[in-house]
Design goal:
The complex is a heterodimer of chains A (183) and B (145). Chain A has helices at 42-51, 63-73, 83-99, 104-126, 128-137, 148-182. By secondary structure, chain A is mostly helical. Chain A has one domain (42-182). Chain A is elongated. With 145 residues, chain B is an all-alpha fold. Chain B contains eight helices and no strands. In chain B, α1 (8-18) packs antiparallel against α5 (75-92). The chains are: A mainly alpha (183), B mainly alpha (145). Chain A binds chain B through residues 36, 38, 42-43, 45-50, 52-56, 61, 78-80, 82, 84-85, 87-92, 94-95, 138-140, 144, 179-180, 183, and chain B through 35-41, 43-45, 48-49, 62, 65-66, 98-99, 102-103, 105-107, 110-117, 122, 124-125, 142-145.
Chain lengths: 183, 145
């Protein structure tokens, strides 16, 4: 299991409670929801359970931090990438926000989760080359799990960089093939 | 006879055949379909809460709160359903579609699952593998490739 070499952010946790989570992890998005929040709405609760896993050790154990690490470092979390999961569960959250009657607290948490989905997607958008490297390292299509928004944002940058990264992508693909052959 | 699914639609169709009791619930969440309702949502909304319910001996009620009355409450019936569900996972685990294998790996084998509602110890991967067959167990070692 990889550990994210991301600088830890120290914060005052004195005021933390299940309904008032504070940043206690490596997430660079201070002020956003970090750690699994307690919610009342069943659908939102199931989404929270899907987003945070108890033994995940990158960042705060969330899909957001896994994606951020993969996109920025080009390395894998748990042997694969989590871009597809991020994109699909963001759609899930949007559906919940549109169709569910959320109380004020749940609505606020849903908005903060929405912000973290956005930030993780921006991580991919801003680091398309390393995100593609991670996908290739996992043996996937380089753009696997890229959301439409991420693709739109990535296209111009990829257009500029495609020539320079071609040898790198070939190298990564060879390594991935060798690794697959060793299994 | 089951064969590994090549698309998400096939995977969900296989799930409906293997676990027909879940068809109505799958209809409720719109799976499979547009708007991002794919296998991660199926796991998130239906399968993991159901597995958690059975593995905690009925203590975790997330599934039943989401879909009240959708399934018989009888514990033995739910155990039988879970056994058939894990038979479906055996096919998904060797799907030629990497995305399908990835979902199985990430949702069942990468980490445990938090049972928030009852504040019980988290379900570990060993817990989640209690009903697993050989392909899932092999995937835990080899990864989703």
């Amino acid at each position: 299991m990889f550990r994210a070499p991301i600088e830890l952010v120290g914060v005052d946790t004195a005021g933390a409670s299940p309904h008032n989570p504070v940043c206690v992890c490596s997430s660079p998005y201070i002020g956003a929801v970090v750690g699994p929040p307690i919610v009342e709405n069943p659908a939102l609760g199931r989404l929270v359970q899907a987003l945070w896993r108890p033994t995940a050790d990158v960042g705060d154990g969330s899909t957001f931090d896994a994606v951020g690490y993969e996109a920025i470092s080009g390395q894998l979390v748990g042997g694969t990438t989590h871009f597809q999961k991020l994109a699909e569960l963001w759609q899930n959250l949007n559906g919940i926000m549109k169709t569910q009657s959320l109380n004020e607290t749940d609505r606020a948490i849903a908005n903060e989760l929405d912000e973290r989905f956005l930030q993780a997607t921006v991580d991919i958008e801003q680091n398309p080359v390393t995100a593609m490297e991670a996908n290739l390292l996992a043996g996937k299509s380089p753009i696997a799990g890229f959301s439409n928004a991420a693709m739109d944002a990535a296209d111009p940058q990829l257009g500029e960089e495609v020539e320079s990264i071609e040898p790198l992508l070939e190298c990564v693909a060879e390594v991935a093939e060798d690794a697959a052959g060793d299994l | 006879m089951n064969t590994p699914p090549t698309t998400v639609d096939e995977a969900v169709a296989q799930l409906r055949r293997g676990c027909p009791e879940l068809s109505e619930v799958l209809d409720t969440i719109g799976a499979p379909g547009g708007d991002g309702v794919g296998l991660y949502t199926v796991f998130c909304d239906v399968l993991l809460p159901l597995i958690a319910n059975v593995l905690t001996g009925g203590a975790d009620q997330s599934f039943d709160r989401g879909f009240p009355g959708a399934l018989d409450q009888e514990v033995d019936d739910r155990r039988d359903l879970i056994r058939r569900l894990y038979d479906v996972f055996e096919e998904w685990a060797v799907s030629p579609d990497r995305d399908i294998r990835d979902v199985v790996y990430i949702e069942l084998l990468e980490n445990g699952y938090t049972v928030l509602d009852v504040n019980r110890p988290d379900l570990t991967v060993d817990d989640l593998l209690r009903y697993a067959g050989p392909r899932l167990k092999a995937m835990r070692v080899a990864g989703p490739r």
